[in-house]
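Write out the 3D structure for:
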Amino acid sequence: MSLIQSARMNGHDPYAYLKDVLTRLPTQRANEITELLPHKWAPV
């Protein structure tokens, strides 16, 4: 399953999800990377 499909299945707008994740990814701590998965993601 792709990230786009996972985002949709979890009720997120895929564009907003990917935009936020790609923006936050460079500064995200390695031990907190799972917070960016679609089932745990929450927009800031």
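The CA atoms of residues 15 and 25 lie 15 Å apart.
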